[in-house]
Amino acid sequence: MKTDLQLIKKAKSKDPTAFAALYEKIYKDLYHFALYTLKNPTDAEDLVSETILEAYAQIHKLRREESFKAWIFTILSNKCKQRFKNQNLSLEEIPWDFPEPCSKNLEMDTIIREEFFSLSDEERLIISMHIFAGYKSREIAKILHMNENTIRSKESRALKKMAANLKPEKE
């Protein structure tokens, strides 16, 4: 069984089979990141496809094999940021045909999604990078060219906003 590092080394030498194996391992994470950041399945699929094409074309530029996941998510997050600049997405445009809910409670899952999508583009991007891509705040800060403390503050405020709206009102 080949390790991921071996696959990455082979992919860097333009081995399409190795790159396809890497793609299989990371596709769901890329898609979920894009979907929950952009809130549109078609846009998410498009950006993941663009990301994969760019990553395959540029993989020879990857300096450290250990950084493959961070590198490809950086490409995707930059594409998401560019999409935000080129498009004005609104809450009313949310397509509700998402993959299976994470929780057994469909009503709570829907409420959580509504709260997530009520956040600003930047807040959704930060939370998506942390939760779906697994980045640490210092990595997010580097990718977004922001201060690490600013990232933590923005994420904390966004999560508090969501939590406040999820608490049942007292009668």
Quick overview of this protein structure:
The protein is mainly alpha-helical and 171 residues long.
Note the main attributes of this structure.
171 residues
Instruction: Characterize the main sheet.
Output: none
Estimate the mean pLDDT confidence.
79
Number of strands: 0
State the separation between the terminal residues, measured CA to CA: 59 Å
| Beta-strand residue fraction | under 5%
Helix share, percent: 55-70%
**Total helical elements:** 8
Shape: globular
Number of domains: 1
Whole-angstrom Rg: 17 Å
Class derived from helix and strand content: mainly alpha
Oligomeric state of shown chains: single chain
Uncertain spans, ≥5 residues at pLDDT below 50?
89-103
Order of helix and strand elements from N to C terminus: HHHHHHHH
Task: Give the SSE layout.
Blueprint: H1 4-12, H2 16-38, H3 41-58, H4 68-86, H5 106-117, H6 121-131, H7 137-144, H8 148-166
Helix pairs in contact: 1-2, 2-3, 2-4, 2-6, 3-4, 4-6, 5-8, 6-8, 7-8
Describe the structure.
- The protein has 171 residues and is an all-alpha fold.
- It has one domain (4-166).
- Helices cover 70% and strands 0% of the residues.
- It has 8 helices and no strands.
- The chain has helices spanning 4-12, 16-38, 41-58, 68-86, 106-117, 121-131, 137-144, 148-166.
- α2 packs antiparallel against α3, α2 crosses α4 (68-86) and α6 (121-131) crosses α8.
- The protein is globular.
- The termini are far apart.
- Residues 89-103 have low confidence and may be disordered.
